Structures are given as structure tokens and as C-alpha cells.
Amino acid sequence: MSQQQRAASHLLAFLPELDPHALAETLVAFANGDGGTIVLGYDERGRPSARVTPEDVEAVLREAAALTVPPVRAALENAGGDGTPQLIVRVPRSVDLHSLKDGRVFVRAAGENRPLTGDEIRNLSQSKSAGDYEAETVPGATLDDFDDEIVAEYIAKREMRTRRKIELAARDARHAAPLLKDIGALDVRGQPTVAGILLFGKNPQSFLPQSGVVFVKFPGVEPRGEGGRVGYGRREEINGPLARVVERAWQVILEEMRVGAIVKGLEREEVLEYPEFAVREALVNAVCHRDYRLRGRRIEVRKYADRLEVISPGGLAGYITLDNIIEEHFSRNPRLVQGLFQWGYIEELGLGIDRMIEDMVAAGHPAPKFNATAYSFTVILSNVRERRATQNITLMPPTTAEAGIALPPGLTVNERQARALQYVREHGRITNRDLQVLCPNVTPETLRLDLADLVDKGVLMRVGEKKGTYYILK
Fold first, then answer.
1. What is the tens place of the pLDDT at every residue in 28-37?
2. Which pTM value belongs to this model?
3. Range of the domain at 356
């Protein structure tokens, strides 16, 4: 699929017109986040809106960059493959905090540029000022500390992901040095970086002992051993390059997960205690986004009788909060994220939390819980399967607890919202289309505003983007 046939996202934007102010806003939004690509002269449907020439784009790009503080660095490319120019602007992630000249700071969220509040700007500024730790070189490390087998595996997986052949004389670290520099595993002088050692090192923990995972299983619901004594049922320390850490940690968790069964028709189907994707996503997120500057603490996976906890050292990065964690995306370690994405451990950038929630709810579990402190972030998966209510529920006046769901004191809902809550209770989720079927004589925009109002009131949680959006109980 070509660039102009894709939907706008937190990594991709379309600017049909050469508007320097819109371009400047998008440059700032991408530079403050994980970077991105701007397609010029096309809309999201791939239709050219105006004839643009390289000279026109260069002029408007200079004008737009002059509207940003400090000026955003970007590269102009021609991505057209059939002789027709398709001009795109590549914006790298920046270590600086960028704004427009009027002081507004933007980030990219849900395919749009969003202005940050004062608190969000301060949080993002603190993250930027902390430096780019994964790009720092590792004292004492050399190219000989890279595992050639791991490098070759990464190259093979990257080729499968991108469907592009990488031409190398040999698939070892020395022959792949230009590629390793390009992805930030080596610096410009060929010295291994923190990201490089974590992704490709023979023994990353000899340089970064905090980079492993500790798995602990407790028999009950408290961090104690049998009979309430001090101890645990199983403890494993998992080390190695990050790809191996993810796989070995997953295998240990899989060994300890109970397996149930459901009957579909005449066939018996085994069901894991927790959805596989939800567990792997929680684990991969911890590995990708933990703060590797924090020494003395490793990622912890704690399995209790009623829940699984994945604890990642380091609080939420940048402007991310518990309130916006589903819609917003900001990577503390973008090189690690890209590395594991190319490896295949991340299915689609920026959509993991959405699907984690979706899979847990679809399996009959409560949605995951997230706890954040200044020095840690925890994902909690419950193995309790919620019983779906199937009985008919009488709609009550808006001043009561609609559809059997307790509302916060003082809040009321209208009849359409009551129908929506009833539907969520029965089916676990609702989409705009579902509500249109329930209320066929109401305009889609009114129904959209009804659902958005329930989100604002803290009753529903919005999951997904655009056509994939649905709502669950918060």
C-alpha cells in the first residue's frame, strides 16, 4: 500500500495544500513526538489536490521551518515511483522541545495535531531535558560485543517486514555496520550505543545489569509463599538481548498459565488464562518503554492467583498520562521500539494498548488496569471472567442508575445514552454504528456527541481510532 492510500496517524500526515502555517504545526507535532512523514499535495484518499513542484515545496518548507522555535529539521524526498513526483517531508524525532513562534506546542495524536496544556509541556520538556539515553555510547563496548547470529536474525526479520532485500557481503555485525549506524545501534564513530547493546549484545547485562526481567510466581493473591510464609512458588531471572528476553519471559509465563476449555459446537477449544496478545503486549511495552537509566531495578513480572502484573521501572514518558494513554503515543526509547517492530514483536506501532484492552474484554475479562508513579508503570491483567448480562433491562428515567450501571453522584444521562449503556452491559462494547441501529431516527453526529459525553463523564472509555473506534465501560 502506498503512502497516499493510508490513513493519517501519529506517524503520517497529509497536506493537500501548501500552507506554511499548517506545515509548521505538523513539523512541530512530529518533532516533539516520534517523528513522522508528511505527504504533500495529496489527500487521505490518494487524490492529488494541486500540482506541486519541488521548488514550491522547498520554498514553503523554508517558510514553515522559520515559524518553528527552534527550527525543525526535515528532509524533502520524492517518493514517486512511476515518474509522477510524490513529494514527502521526513521529520525526525527531536531531542529539543519545539513550538510555534506564538508559543503553542503541538504533538501528534489520532491523526491530528493536538496542542499541549501547560502541565503537558512541562512534562515533555523534562523528558527532553533528560537526554537521549539509548543513543549514548556504552563505555568499554566494541563491535565484538555484538552477537552476529542476532544481527543476522534481525536483518532477516526486517526484510520480511519491509519486503525489501538488504544487500550485504555477509550478515555479521562488521559487514552490517552501515545499517547498524542507520538504526542507531552504532554512533557515527562506530561505537556501540545503549540501544545497540540492548538489541544485539552477546551479554547486554554485563554492561547494563538492569536490563533483564525477573519473573516471580506467588501461590495466592499476596506476595507471599505457601501458607503465608515468606517466599514464592517460582522465580526466574531472564537475561540476554531484548528479543531473547521477550521470548524467554513469554515462555516462562506460558508455562505458568492455567489452560481452560470452552465448547464450540461439537469441538473443545483450549483457552489460556490470559489472552496471548495482551500478555505479550504488556511484556513488550515494558521492555521498550522502561527507563534504562534507572539502575538497580529490572522489569518484574509477578503472577498471582487472580492477576498478572508487569512492572516497568520509570514513570510515563513525555506528555503521556493515565487519561490519554490509549489515544496518545510517545516513546522514551524510539530506537528500541523500531528495532522490535522490525523484528516482528510489535504488530503495528501505536495500537498495542487498544488491542490489549480489546482482547481482554473479548475474552470476558475486565479491561487492564494501569498504575503510574514517578518511578514505575504497572499493567495489571485480571484472570476473573466477567459474566455477561443477557437479561432484558428496563430503561429507567435519566435521573436513576441507567441500565443497571452506577453513575457518579450528580450525573444524569438521556434516553439514548441509557440505551447505549444497556447495550454495553449486554455486549461488553458499543460502536457508533451499534447506537445508530438502536436509535435509527437520530443523526449520527448527535449519537457521536452522546458517546463522547459519556466518555467525558468518566462512564465509558474510547478505544481505537476512526472506523475502528468502540467504547467500553470505564
1. 999 998 899 9
2. 0.72
3. 209-382
